[in-house]
Amino acid sequence: MAGNTNDGLSPKPLYSVALHAGAAESWFGASDTRMKTEAFIKDVIMLAETQLISGIKAVDVVTNIVEQLENHPQFNAGKGAAINIEGFHELEAAVIDGSTSEYRAAAGLRQTKNPVRLARAMMSKASPVFIAGPTADALACRKGLEMVENEYFSTQSRKNYWLSNIDRVRSIIDHHGTVGAVALDIHGHLAAANSTGGLMFKSIGRIGDTAIIGAGIYADDEVAIACSGSGETILKASIAGRAAADVRHGRGIDEAIKGALLRSTDLDQKSSSGAIGIDAKGTISIHCNSRIFAVASASSTSQFVAGFIPSTIPIINQLICFENELIRVGMSRHPTAPNQLSVELKRNTSIMDLELKDFLDYFCTLRIMSHALQKISGLELCGFVMAGDQEATLLPISAPLAGSEGTPESPTALSLETRELPGDYRATFHFKPDYMNPAKVEIGPANHMLTGLLSTEDYTIGLAIAIWTTLELLHTEFGQTKALSVLEIYQAFTSGAIATLSESGSAESHFPAPAPFHKDFPGFMTVELGRRAENLLELPAIAQEVSRIIKEL
């Protein structure tokens, strides 16, 4: 493949790179650990970008990235790797050069410090392509790679966890992880690399998806993909190979990766996985159905990003309650309250950027969903919260919000302005001292009494128009389009507001740790994900019942 540039005018070469440090349900680190982890993967991705710009080949860049991740004790690869059922470590890794389709992998390693280095070194010979067990360590030694005692891979936190749980081995699916990278170099070549310590408490000799071509890793001249997560399910779903095949058949890489991850949850509702990918055009795609995914990326056409992301696939097929051309609604896999619904906008745009007709359709659909929730929960009230572009939460609640909870400023610290809205509504804009733009907006009735949230179609349309008009005012009068990105709608605030627009919402942030589950309404709502639902296997039946009720409304 000839070298590429990002357009016909700029001499800047086209390149892209992405890494992952594991898809998971759990987070055991403190806030300082999170910051150190994010700073580390930021440094790694910035170095990788520098290497790509200098002309280093993609296959060497991804190897270098994974080697650095293997040496970092926070991740489940190399130093910090998972401990098997007998109390020691067995590691695996793979590298693929997409320009030549050369693939090498090693598994069952017990003494090779950097498994990814062995996989890369194996490319100098035609055979073996895949090697496992003691002979793999022996090959690494013959090639002059650094060897260590098995104890080197242990960390105190891993050992403590193993000792605490070995007598009652349980929930091991939550304690997986992988590190990996994909890259497109300035010569137009793609590559992928992956490395892992496998599952905690795994059987001796167990090999997961990480080093298996077509399962956890794939690269050719059109696409490179690396996966992380539930190894057995990734193997059965062939996530990397399935997504790559879709890309080769003309599907966008974003849709291809999401589709492959959804296929894994079709096979197992508990599947907790993620994937990173790059196509030949340099498009980067990062998705996960796990609760969190540690990732970083950079390219010639965008700034680098690094950190933890929440699930990008909020609704799996078995839990869908309703779907039309505009939205998809389903039971939440990671709820913070009983009978919680996730609402996903299917358009590639923000809810707040919808045209008025679609905005009204969106809220009229929410009205139907809220009535179904009231029937199935036995509660009379519902609340809605949206943060960001496309995802939202709808859930039944047991009491209205008592006041403007979560607002850090006292009322006296804010100056107020009001605007009259259509339908006899009023918007109250709250300004911080010395700030030109509002920090919060409350929307409520100007003169009439409050009724049930989204209780009738006319009421719903009136409220939706009031919210949409407020968004227009924020844009035209204050030049704000994204700053107030959290929309909350409750039955009623004591202040008389029905809806609020704010920067951060009323809930405390817990991410990347799970948001707590509240059986009873705590007085606020959040779009942050909780722990995976304890009744996950029962949720498909609940989703079917909600769907039945919706059809009757």
UniProtKB/TrEMBL annotation:
Q: What is its EC number?
A: 3.4.19.5
- Judging by the UniProt lineage, the source's domain of life is Eukaryota
Q: Which UniProt keywords apply?
A: Autocatalytic cleavage, Hydrolase, Protease
Q: Name one GO molecular function term.
A: beta-aspartyl-peptidase activity
Tell me, what is an example of a GO biological process annotation in this record?
A: proteolysis
Per the record, what are the reactions this protein catalyses? Cleavage of a beta-linked Asp residue from the N-terminus of a polypeptide
Task: Cite the position(s) of the site with description Cleavage.
Answer: 177-178
Q: Which residues form a coiled coil?
A: none
The enzyme's first-digit EC class, named in words, is hydrolase
Q: Which GO terms describe its cellular component?
A: cytoplasm
Q: Where is the active site?
A: 178 (nucleophile)
Pfam family of the protein (one):
Asparaginase_2
- N-terminal signal peptide: none
Protein's recorded name = beta-aspartyl-peptidase
